[in-house]
Amino acid sequence: MNAQFKKGVLELIVLLCVSHKDRYGYELIVEVSKIVDINDGTIYPLLKRLTNEKYFETYLVESTEGPSRKYYKITSLGEARLSELKESWLAFSSSINEFIRESEESDKE
Amino acid sequence: MNAQFKKGVLELIVLLCVSHKDRYGYELIVEVSKIVDINDGTIYPLLKRLTNEKYFETYLVESTEGPSRKYYKITSLGEARLSELKESWLAFSSSINEFIRESEESDKE
DNA sequence: TTTACTACTTGACAATGTAAGGTAGTAAGT
DNA sequence: ACTTACTACCTTACATTGTCAAGTAGTAAA
After folding, report:
1. Rounded-to-integer distance, Cα A55 and Cα A82, Å
2. What is the distance in angstroms between the CA of the first residue and the CA of the last residue of chain A?
3. DSSP per residue over A43-101, as a string?
4. Average pLDDT over residues A92-102
5. Over the stretch A6-52, which tens digit does the pLDDT of each residue have?
6. Segments of chain B scoring below 70 in pLDDT
7. Which of B6, B9, B90 to mutate to probe the A interface, most A CBs <10 Å?
8. How far apart are the CA of A11 and the nearest CA of chain B, in angstroms?
9. What per-residue confidence (pLDDT) applies to A108?
10. Calculated CA dihedral for residues B12, B92, A43, A81, nearest 10 degrees
């Protein structure tokens, strides 16, 4: 997979994941890894940034399986950011796909 | 448009453009701008990189409308890179789109 | 007490796009 | 002759975001 494609899209994926239910970092790593290849050093700084930007609020919950889990909860600002990003992604990806399709058309001629 | 989405995709767009016919830099700026927002400071370094990586060969052609044009021609290595990138993009974008769709499904529940 | 798994954090680094500026040729208007 | 505009190319300093590698620490089973 091209590493560069991920840029910017990770934020969308993480926002989507958290929008369904509150999540903690480690859980997000597992979830997000199903879709794109990432390591934990990518997720935690991203969560920090999104929290600084007021898209997430956090709270701690003790765990019986290890250290306390820091949960991330989406804010209304985060929801707004999510729908903005989602729309922006859909427009972007479909315009690229259309360009690819057009290219394939003109190759036939 | 989200600036980050562009990362990596520009290379695909430029390869696609050049694969149809030889292009010069300024022409590419005009072409590529139709699809994504870019400035010339993005294109020229990219063309240099792709040429260094042997995806393009270049030749100069004099112009009656200004300075000589440096044309870029795709190599067979470049064609291979293009189909690799294209496939990689299609797989990537469809997996993201599927994830978005699934999210919307689970929102209804 | 060692190993493995969960969980979070940080800092140096790499890749790629942006902004802003520069050089220079052609051509048309004043 | 001088200016303006358009064509054409290039470079440098910078910002953003992801990667890698390393570290800290709690729980629990062998």
Report:
1. 9
2. 31
3. HHHHHHHHHHTTSEEEEEE--SSSSPEEEEEE-HHHHHHHHHHHHHHHHHHHHHHHHHH
4. 95
5. 999 999 999 999 999 999 999 999 999 999 989 889 999 999 999 99
6. 107-109
7. B9
8. 10
9. 64
10. 90
* B87: helix, strand or coil: helix
CATH class of A3-108: mainly alpha
Rounded to a whole number of angstroms, the distance between the first and last alpha carbons of chain B is: 31
Residue B28 corresponds to which tokens in the numbers above?
């590419």
Nucleotides of strand C within 7 Å of the protein's CB atoms: 5-12, 15-21, 24-27
Structure tokens at B24: 């010069």
Strands A56-61 and B23-24: unpaired
Using CA atoms, how far apart are residues B30 and B23, in angstroms rounded to an integer? 11
Q: Does the beta-carbon distance from A19 to B103 stay under 8 Å?
A: yes
